[in-house]
User: Fold these one by one.
Assistant:
Number 1:
Amino acid sequence: MIGDSGAPHMRTFTWSLKLGEYEALGCGTSKKIARNNAAQQMLSILPEEMKKK
């Protein structure tokens, strides 16, 4: 997790995911949502060869 911001009742969390030379960021209203958004972002930028392994 990179960090969070906003008022306590309206937090926005930011998550970073690194895999080799690739990096993806995800934001969300919960840590779980931010983490899932980062994972989806990573899947969208990875080459197809790496997804099959």
Note: The chain is about 35% helix and 35% strand.
Number 2:
Amino acid sequence: MISKIGDHINANEGIIIAFACVLALLEIVLIFKRKRFPFVTFFFTLFAVISMILHLPSLGLELLFGDNKIEIFETRIDVIIFIFAYGLILMAVQIAILVNMLVNEKKDSKLIEQAKLLHPECQGVIRGKRIIFLESYYQKLPYKQNEIKVAKINNEKVRKNKFYRALKEKDVFLLYLELKNKVLEVNYKKENIIVDEEVVGKAIYVNILKEGKKDEYVKLNPFKVEDLVIYANLQKEITMFFDQEINSYRLSENMAHLLGTKEIITEKAYQEIILASDLPIYLNKEFSKEKPSTYNYRVNSINGIDWVEQSTFFANGRYYDIIKLAKRPQTHYHYLGLGSLEEALKQAKDKKIALVLLSFTSLRKYLKQDQRLFESIVHEYFQNVLKEETIYKLANLEYAFLIEDKEVYDALLLNLNNEASKLLEAEVYVYENKYEVKNNLAVILNTDLAPDEDIIKEGLDLLALSKDAKFNKPYSIYVKKEVVVPEAGYDFKSLKIDLNDDDLDEYL
């Protein structure tokens, strides 16, 4: 069979030439599509094409290769067949690489469109390990790689690969560049690109803080926090910076408006704005020389309560302390209501289903203090514990969902009896802060009720029972009521039992 294939290939040199041309063409496409020259596939392709050409029968070079046979696994086959098989494998690899590049290009293009829509001022995007600089980036920093003499991040010299690593890992950093004829200090900043509550990538913002000749750089352009405030006002950012020279915070116009303060406030005055329960987070902040530290806490504002994000880090011989308004996750989450739950129960009346009711008892204090925080915690809880379930909101603290799968129901009962269910207790994180969620729970099967009984009402009664201080468990499971039917011939009168309760009146 193999020898026949070899004879057919040798008899049709056009097949060999066409195949070699296809391999060469695919490699040329890869060379132009890839940013880096594909050395590995290039040399493999070069070897394949040259080997195919040299083994064309019409060239009469058989004497150079002896009998033109090769032994593989004790089988002697034509060299041309071996080269042809090698070429097929190489072609498969080339096509796989090309398809992967096209898929990535499509995803990159979609992300760039989303970034331009949601972050029109950004100069680049990051998707996974891929960093894509937009045309605006090269317009803002119009220098070439070979012009860079020295590059520093956090006062440490960096090469190109370390720069890309910093860009992927750090949300904010300063890059110091010494070029042939000038010096630059560039601020890099990243923001999440969020689509449908999902982070799909990062937007890169670049701003030149300082620019000048090396000799005049220190004399004419000493670092001033006012420069950052001016930049923040131009970008209409809600942010503030600690100025070591005056030992106070300098606020952008929007931040001063949000906090209802002046544009310069002392550290003590700022501490009075922070919620007392969150003040320890601020007081325990640290300055790292390796990477920025980030802290999230709440402050009193004209809105009532707002979250801020504080970043502290050491760079270029200075300590930086930057505070900005944190971007909240979506706070208006949509749950189905009581009417939808009643309809779902009605639709499932012929099935055996369980109604599970939850009460976020431990979160009551957050509901009173900060309703948006409460909603964020509840949302994160459902995302972590009941992501796949349909959730029904019955009241501020009470929610419900249905179970149709018997195995899921049995597992729930087992976990409840062991008090190991995340429905009773779980930890969730909002703004990197941990919150312990402890719930009360009620479980009831629709088949355990009489047709005229209201499963939702019974469930709410059970839930109320689980909250009773006399009840020693945080959950309650409905037990089917047993109806006692008197045996035939059973007569209360014959036992001289008077069912008239008039004689009890004197005791009541």
Note: The chain has three domains: 2-112, 120-325, 338-477.
